[in-house]
Amino acid sequence: MKNYFKTVPTRDGYYGDFGGSFLPPHLQAEMDKITEAYFTISKSHEFISELRSIRKHFQGRPTPVYFCKRLSEKAGSRIYLKREDLNHSGAHKLNHCMGEALLAKYLGKKKLIAETGAGQHGVALATAAAYFGLECEIHMGEVDIAKEHPNVVRMRILGAKVVPVSHGLKTLKEAVDSAFEAYLVDPETSIYCIGSVVGPHPFPMMVRDFQRVVGIEAREQFHEMTGELPDNVVACVGGGSNAAGIFSAFLADEEVKLWGVEPAGISYATGDHACTMKYGTPGVIHGFKCNVLQDEEGNPAPVYSVASGLDYPGVGPEHCMLKANGRVNYSDANDKETIDAFYELSRLEGIIPALESAHAVAFATKLAKDAQRESILINLSGRGDKDLDFVVNTYGLPD
Q: What residue ranges in 149-297 does DSSP mark as E strands?
């Protein structure tokens, strides 16, 4: 793992057999400009100083690590949370959105374009656009607009234009398609701010680098609290940005087991899931190569998750590499386990998690049965305000 972040990805954006950039020539030229600009400014004193100031004075970083006393007593292991739900705008997404918007400002762009599923990336990018005085356009599937109404309102209050996507399954994959199409119309004055460690190079690398702050903080905080490193680190995985962020600080620590948790949804048999690592095969989607859930004709297959931010048929190329080389274990949690964890964390600890994050909590409580007396650090990637109406209306309140 020596010099890992200087050698991964390669110059062409590959993580082992995954990654790269599969774009038409005119759009590749724009990606090359973004790549060059990122490498030019990301190492500069001015950029780093401004980003650190934003994180401290605007985002409220560092976010704390919290010990879940009551949940730990019930589970039988020591469970801790990295509280990204306390990051400004309610999730980890602002970590890379402020970085991407700062890059857009350097490039002289006027407009930020993005997709969103659960709405957290959309809210974060709308927040960044307001901060820097840029236009913002967010593409969101109509199904997710209905599920995540509070976040839609927040985006509009922040000044963003929300574009409903009405084709296909009307969820995250279609929102990405729509946002890419909008970006193609005017790549010179706009920039596509991808919401995870996915897409063509350099976006998987950029988003990971901006999210590394989560792992850097968590590693230092956990060691300060306990005098040691965690035995296990757990994070949910859709595209995989929050997981890439927290895993990054522990990749060289072989004694720390890393767990990525995908959405098992309702049923493997019916295809109502989004377990890309478990059932996906190598393919190209949205301009990069990764494991993809595909139909018989090789097209991205329909996917499902109770968490709108996880229902994506692809996954970050670095995650594909980390699975292939065995450094990260990938498992899953289904809808029922996730809803149970949503309520359990709320009632035992007074913390309402995002449904995405609840997948990680659900898996961690299962892991605790086999990891008695071990420590488990969960990246609580977001808060659950956005999910309250959907959860209560769909599942009701527990007794």
A: 161-165, 190-192, 232-236, 257-265, 281-285, 288-292
Amino acid at 388: L
Q: What is the pLDDT of residue 1?
A: 60
Q: Which of 26, 45, 57, 68 is the catalytic position?
A: 68
Q: Are 204 and 318 in contact (CB under 8 A)?
A: yes
Among the listed residues 92, 201, 286, 359, the single catalytic one is: 92
Cα atoms found within 13 Å of the Cα of residue 60, Cβ hemisphere only = 13
User: Is 92 an active-site residue?
Assistant: yes
Element (H, E) at 78: strand 78-83
At 207, list the tokens. 């988003």
Q: What residue ranges define each of the domains in the chain, with the CATH number in brackets?
A: 14-56+92-203 (3.40.50.1100), 60-91+212-395 (3.40.50.1100)
Q: Is 319 a catalytic residue?
A: no
Nearest to 310 by CA among 213, 371, 246, 241: 241
Does this model's pTM top 0.90? yes
Reported as a single tens digit per residue, the pLDDT across 109-124 is: 999 999 999 899 999 9
Q: What is the mean pLDDT of residues 98-107?
A: 95
